[in-house]
């Protein structure tokens, strides 16, 4: 991660799509952060474990991620994935209102909206990245995407549900879908260097 005082800081709102009640985070990230690090920070902020593939996509369908040598347009169709480690947040999202879709775990299909809420000067007393707000716990890995998560919540809440015992055994009884702590997220984002966790 870049050391020293950043010139500008992006305030990003990260919202998990297709999940109700909403799961979201507001994070402050140095504008010069590479998208590969933004991916890892987003994963940490949301609460994912980080062992699945991911990618970013702009509204004009430009895709960023970890390129594969076979990921080339064939016969003029499609677009290659641009290397996320070679592009900075401030270049890809240059203005307030800019947005990206962040996809995580292509099997379960977790989609997130990343929206720039502000770009400003850093506060001298702050260390970045920061999580300043959010709501609700991240769904557990491998629970079947938004629809599987909804079914899981219903089964956990109903002791008579046919899958209640199975899911309690799998997830444990400590999982609280309403739980969220911005300070814990900040500590995690600041203590784990992108890539160290995976």
For this entry, give a set of tags.
Structural Genomics Hypothetical 15.5 Kd Protein In mrcA-pckA Intergenic Region, Chain A
Q: What would you give as the CATH superfamily of the largest domain? A: MM3350-like
Number of domains: 2
Helix content: 10-25%
Return the CATH topology of the largest domain: Structural Genomics Hypothetical 15.5 Kd Protein In mrcA-pckA Intergenic Region, Chain A
Work out the helix count: 5
Compute the CA-based radius of gyration: 18 Å
Tell me what the structure shows:
The protein is of the alpha+beta class and about 200 residues long. It has two domains: about 10-135 and about 180-190, Roll (Structural Genomics Hypothetical 15.5 Kd Protein In mrcA-pckA Intergenic Region, Chain A), CATH 3.10.290; about 140-175, no CATH class. Helices cover about 25% and strands about 25% of the residues. The chain is built from five helices and eight strands. It has helices spanning about 35-45, 90, 145-155, 165-170, 180-190; strands spanning about 10-15, 25-30, 55, 65, 80-85, 100-105, 110-120, 130-135. The chain has an eight-stranded mixed beta sheet with strand order 5-4-3-6-7-1-2-8. A hairpin with a 5-residue loop joins β6 and β7 (about 110-120). α1 packs antiparallel against α5 (about 180-190) and α3 (about 145-155) packs across α4 (about 165-170). The longest helix has 13 residues, at about 145-155. The model is unreliable at about 195-198 (pLDDT under 50).
